[in-house]
Amino acid sequence: MNDLLQYFENNKKNRIHKWTHYFEIYDRYLSRFRGTAVHLLEIGVYHGGSLLMWKHYFGNQAKLFGLDINPDCRQLEEDQIKILIGDQSDRRFLESLKAQLPRIDVLIDDGSHTMKGQINTFEVLFPHISPTGVYICEDLHTSYWMDYGGGVRKSGTFIEYTKDFVDQIHAWHSEDRKRLPVSDFTRSAYALHYYDSMLVIEKRPIEQPTHRMTGVPAVPSEPLPPEISTKDKIARKVKRMKDRARSFLNPRRA
Ligand SMILES: C[S@@+](CC[C@H](N)C(=O)[O-])C[C@H]1O[C@@H](n2cnc3c(N)ncnc32)[C@H](O)[C@@H]1O
Predict the structure, then answer these.
(1) Distance of alpha carbon 155 from alpha carbon 127, whole angstroms
(2) Range of the structural domain that residue 247 is part of
(3) Measured from the CB, is residue 133 less than 6 Å from ligand 1?
């Protein structure tokens, strides 16, 4: 049992409401911030119990921020914990947060769980997260719940919205750069981890991926899949060479 789950199971302080499989996931991506001056923003304060849990977990250098629409949450402020009041679907409010929180290393969206709230929060605050930070959105199951504007493969849900991220992290390899250009997301998202009801995005500055070969050839031939015609193979090879030359001459536009 990791320290977070242990804390949760023994909690006699303010109420925490979490799906129990989240604790293993948190620990996997957040343990590297323990004992550091991490700046964490959790959207959705509720009774403040999860902020107390983060304080215990990260230690006395951590700075913890809780955002909630409920003004009563203000009373939960204490040493290391600052409470902000506002609506996470309000893009103007979210923009104003950037000045109040110039640094956010970890963002946990456990607030309204509505499509608008999750998408607006991501669009405004993901670019603001530290370049090696972590963005977590939880309770993604609301993307399948009609009450929350969800439905299976329904356009406009947060799940459908994030499926585009899979394309974006592959944009370096796109042969149709008009439809799939290298974006700020491509350059800043290192990994997407989907779990039941939770998406974890690890940030890291990303450059054009490269590949190399080492060692010597060990078999006489290197057949390509038969589905690719000879004409296609030649055209692809020429295009790859041109792309490589272009990215070598102008790496930012590649
Ligand atoms: C699921 S609870 C948070 C649970 C808490 N993080 C925990 O782990 O114990 C959701 C919280 O989000 C808040 N909330 C709901 N809609 C919101 C919105 N639009 N903006 C900010 N907070 C919101 C609610 O007031 C509630 O306190």
Answers:
(1) 23
(2) 224-254
(3) no
